[in-house]
Amino acid sequence: MTFRIALNFEDGATRFIDCNAGEKVLDAAYRNKINLPMDCSDGVCGTCKCRAEQGDYDLGDDYIDDALTAEEAEEGLVLTCQMVPSSDCVIAVPVPSSACKVKPADIAVELVAIERLSPHRVRVSIKATDAGLPAFLPGQYVNFAVPGSGGTQRSYSFSSAPGAEVATFLIRNIQGGRMGDYLGKRAATGDRLILNGPLGSFYLREPRRPMLMLAGGTGIAPILSMLEDLAAKGANGHAVRLLYGAHDAADLVEVERIEALAARIPGFTFATTCSGAGSDHPLTGHVTDHFGAADLNGGDADIYLCGPPEMVEAVRAHVASCGVTVANLYYEKFVPAQAEALAA
After folding, report:
1. Residue limits of the FAD-binding FR-type domain (predicted)?
2. Which residue, among 49, 133, 61, has the nearest Cα to 91 in the 3D structure?
3. Model's pTM, two decimal places?
């Protein structure tokens, strides 16, 4: 029996390794040529301290309190030289990937479909070639090398579930943008594309409390990946609420998919809103207009937030103004490509 261990490094790079039953994470990492931080490997120095964000494991009792206190262990901190997984796990490693001789891999994939969902939204589907699709955590992204652009890369989050045979991405289609020009003028099914990753620290953690998900524009993509994972694995009985906003109603894409996910995730509700002037959408305004302190469960809530930088900052300010400190606020900004004024 083996367990899949995701090592998410400080810079967002992620590497998946297999850990054998009874094997310590540090040993499994070295076997996979990943030099996780360590000095003693005996549970004495604490150099290999990381955070287990998901999964079941045993730390044994062969380490000293100076290396890992009982309070730290209760909070999810672990010593990888002592940690023996009993399920798949996600571990946050507090150093850059380069310090552990890890570099995100280039992966060749095949373009399967290009679907225009609205004037400004395109869904791109890919499948594996010989190497297979990259493993990733729900919410993470990869870098696309734009064909024929002299090495230009663009970052896009998966909108599909990990392990799907066909992976999907939502792309904002900007006239004159390098990816937009490729997709609109030169792309053809069967094209070979090069991805690099997975990357990102914005990913779904193990559900431990109610979740509020807030998406703006193509920021819905990583949220969809998270919802697919929750549909497959469950939310541990916790409520999940999604608020999804766009300027124009036409750009509220994938709503039918969200409705289908609502039927698969107990306790999941969602609403959509449009911020464009004169909109006749049932809900208007920004996502911040549709939640307040009463929706934050007294602080016992996890928020997942993704969208353009101005939307992310507005939500963070709004949460702060509610006077409630939430357990966790995870966010990712879809930052424009400077040369082309691209935005999420």
Report:
1. 104-205
2. 49
3. 0.91
Query: Which run of H or E residues covers position 258?
Result: helix 255-264
One domain for residues 112 and 161: yes
**Is there a single domain that holds both residue 252 and residue 178?**
no
Q: Rounded to an integer, what is the distance from CA 31 to the centroid of its chain?
A: 27
Write 319-323 long-range contacts (CB < 8 A, 24+): 322/292, 322/293, 322/296, 323/293
Residue 341 lies in a domain: no
Q: How many residues does the chain have?
A: 344
Q: Which of 43, 67, 100 is the last residue of a domain?
A: 100
3-state DSSP helix/strand/coil percent for the chain, to nearest 5? Answer: 25, 35, 45
Distance CA 133, CA 127 (A): 7
pLDDT in tens, 80-105: 999 999 999 999 999 999 888 888 88
pLDDT > 80? residue 343: no
Question: Could you report the per-residue pLDDT of 190-202, keeping only the tens digit for each?
Answer: 999 999 999 999 9
Clarify whether residues 234 and 313 are in a common domain: yes
Which residue pairs, CB below 8 angstroms and at least 24 apart, start in 319-325?
322/292, 322/293, 322/296, 323/293, 324/293, 324/296, 324/298, 324/299, 325/299
Residue 339 included in any domain: no
Domain range for 83: 2-100
Q: How far apart are CA 261 and CA 138, in angstroms?
A: 15
CATH of the domain at 76: 3.10.20.30
Going by C-alpha positions, the residue among 169, 321, 306, 329 that lies closest to residue 244 is: 306
> The domain spanning residue 322 has which CATH number?
3.40.50.80
Of 199, 224, 256, which one is at a domain's C-terminal end?
199
pLDDT digits (tens, 9 = 90+) for 187-230: 899 999 999 999 999 999 999 999 999 999 999 999 999 999 99
**Which pLDDT score, from 0 to 100, does residue 29 have?**
95
| Dihedral sign (CA 73, 79, 82, 88) | positive
Give me the mean pLDDT over the 50-74 stretch.
Answer: 93
- Please tell me the distance from the alpha carbon of residue 120 to that of residue 302, in angstroms, as a whole number: 30
